Amino acid sequence: MAKVKKAFFCNSCGIESPKWFGRCTSCGEWSTCVEEVVSTTPSRGSSLGLSSSKRVGGNGGRAVAVQDIERSEVVRTSMSYGEVDRVLGGGLVAGSLVLIGGEPGIGKSTLALQIALHKEDYRVLYVSGEESAEQIKLRAERLGIRNNDCLILSETMVENIILQASEHTPKLLVIDSIQTLYSEKIESSPGSVSQVRECAALLLKFAKESSTPVFIIGHITKEGSIAGPKVLEHIVDVVFQFEGDSSTSYRILRSIKNRFGATSEIGVFEMRGDGLHEVSNPSEIFIPQHSEQLSGVAIGAAMEGARPYLIETQALVCATGYSVPQRSSNGFDYKRMGMLIAVLEKRLGFKLGQKDMFLNLVGGFKVADTGLDLAFVAAIISSALDVAIDDGICFAGEVGLSGEVRPAIRTIERVEEAARIGFRTIVVSSYARKSIETVVKKGRINVIYVGKVSDLARQLFSNE
User: Fold this and answer.
1) Reported pTM
2) What is the pLDDT of residue 46?
3) Burial degree of 270 (CB within 10 A; 0-12, 13-18, 19+)
4) Which residues contact 207 (CB under 8 A, 6 or more apart)?
5) Average per-residue pLDDT in the chain?
6) 3-state helix, strand, coil in the chain (%, to 5)
7) What is the CA radius of gyration of the chain?
8) Calpha distance 119→149 (Å, rounded)
9) Cβ atoms 197, 52 nearer than 8 A
10) Which secondary-structure segment (H or E) carries 206?
11) Which residues contact 40 (CB under 8 A, 6 or more apart)?
12) Counting beta carbons within 10 angstroms of the beta carbon of residue 358, is it exposed (0 to 12), middle (13 to 18) or buried (19 or more)?
């Protein structure tokens, strides 16, 4: 009989402790300690079910010189979704473990089921611990069934799932969701730290030994991080975040971690009645749909990974009715907003200390690209002066603390995208002049060079 062992785990980061704690010593969170029963104390490597003579991706425990290691070619399989392939880095790699996280109701299950049903003659085992087979069938009929070799399994015991996968030998295994699975080796309830960790380890072992790619759907906490131990994100090969605003129909699949491709790539989808539809040209949904020119609106050329797109930035500056002015930012870093306000006050003499200020990115989009600084500065100046910016102008540049305008990363791609969409003029840093001379010589777009934010104000608002 296995010796029963009790341990304490942090619900936030998954750290294990032999005694109770009020504040986690690893992540610093309070009241996240839970007690769980562990049936056995696994030996090193046993959580993956590996013997000392055979380890996943190893060579029997022997050290090998790096030049003597044989490198196999990475074969990628297209999932017949251009946006999914883009975020994956060109396609799905055999034996990879992919984690998809997102808020409830955002469309994680819909995305996973569409991937399973979209590629024809591609055997997929779709496992659901949250819905019955009949419920999945109803949703599949609404989404459209193209793949007649998609198998549905309603199961929560991970050992049975791996047994079924071994029998049917699918080319893709989809798990919805990891928080509903449990292993008979662990006595705690499904969704606990130890269960999530053990189930993920068993799925990793299956994926690597059978070369079967596995998609895992994971829930997120109220703070926006993936629920369960942090080790879950460490052991998987790819981490995707499925984002979106419930008030809009657009969804963003964002790559946070990818061992087989670049991070910070995005895929854009639109949620409709018959499922998710790809948006191959995001600039069309993020540029303004109004016909008249409005103050406080500027178009910025942004980058996510290798994808350029244009997005509308909005600013509202008005007199405050409170002793402390309001500051609000939606989709843009709040601290960077404060930095831009300070630069405008110091370098342009704008009196914004007693002004309410609100910044917004359309479509519920969240961007960490510093290349949008120039667009936000232009929108703030436009709103403060109540003067509209010409709708044929867009902006790309980073603003420094001394008020200088620095070149945005991959400025030439941003200029090319603006020219492709049909913008007549783009404002960029004067330090990027050499890198975009080829685009300018073709006459596709007029370029205005600015070295400081004062140059921007003089170029666009000199008559005001």
Assistant:
1) 0.74
2) 45
3) middle
4) 95, 96, 97, 173, 213, 214
5) 85
6) 30, 30, 40
7) 26
8) 9
9) no
10) helix 193-210
11) 2, 3, 5, 185
12) middle
